[in-house]
Design goal:
elongated; mainly alpha; 139 residues; 5 helices
Length: 139
């Protein structure tokens, strides 16, 4: 004699939703969380150090440390920016993507110490411009 055991499938809770609008809000929240990991107070401190009104050229060691932090930020933003700007008008999307490309190109450059200040200013400026394009999404 064979006995069949029946298991009831768990029913989705009414507390959860599987509609596209909810999934979109969840994705946007996660993307903003990832952007917050990239756009930190330390980033703004570095941008102020390089671009601020009273900025002076950094020492080679300090410049290298700032450049490394800016590179880490640029790398994180490559994962977030294209998804964050999907709802932007096409012209604004293009500007943000072009600025992201500029930041990535600068992050791949490692100039000699005598050229590092100019490079650091261009790199920091490109990230600041990208953050401006992102607006509230980067905050």
């Amino acid at each position: 004699m064979t006995t069949a055991v029946m298991h009831e499938s768990p029913r989705p809770s009414d507390d959860f939703s599987d509609d596209d609008a909810t999934a979109g809000r969840l994705l946007l929240g996660l993307l903003r969380s990832l952007a917050a990991e990239a756009v930190t107070d330390e980033l703004y401190d570095d941008l102020e150090t390089v671009l601020g009104e009273y900025a002076v050229p950094a020492s080679p060691a300090e410049g290298a440390a700032i450049a490394n932090r800016l590179r880490q930020t640029a790398t994180k933003l490559t994962y977030v920016v294209p998804r964050l700007i999907k709802s932007y008008p096409m012209a604004q999307q293009r500007l943000a993507i072009d600025q992201l490309r500029t930041a990535i190109n600068l992050s791949n450059q490692h100039p000699a110490p005598e050229n590092s200040h100019g490079h650091l200013v261009r790199f920091a400026s490109s990230l600041l411009t990208l953050l401006d394009h992102l607006g509230d999404a980067a905050a």
